[in-house]
Amino acid sequence: MPTYLYECENCGRFEEFQNIKDEALENCPQCGGEVKRIIGAPGVIFKGSNFYVNQDNSSTKDKKTNSEKVS
After folding, report:
1. Domain limits at 4?
2. pTM for this predicted structure
């Protein structure tokens, strides 16, 4: 289930787990005030290695320098 971010005029921001087919909330569950759904960037988790351009590949560099020294 996706997590949606809402903002209440009185209570501030809160997250709500909802089905994709559900309608957006109109009232705050705490105070009953009017809420707006906030569109934001999804969280992304990268697992594994070599996802970053600036990642240090020191093990690869060491292998290249060792092979160059041998030849």
Report:
1. 1-40
2. 0.54
CB 36 within 8 A of CB 9: no
**What tokens appear for 16 in the block?**
């709500």
In a domain, 63, yes or no: no
Phi-psi region of 3 (alpha: psi -120 to 50; beta: other; left: phi over 0): beta
Tens-place pLDDT, residues 12-58: 999 988 888 989 999 999 999 999 998 877 777 777 776 666 656 56
Task: Report the DSSP beta bridge partners of residue 34.
Answer: 27
Dist. CA 61–CA 44, nearest whole Å: 29
Instruction: Give CA–CA dist 18/71, Å, rounded.
Output: 62
For 42, the token pair is: 């999804």
Pairing of strands 12-17, 3-8: antiparallel
CATH assignment at residue 28: 2.20.28
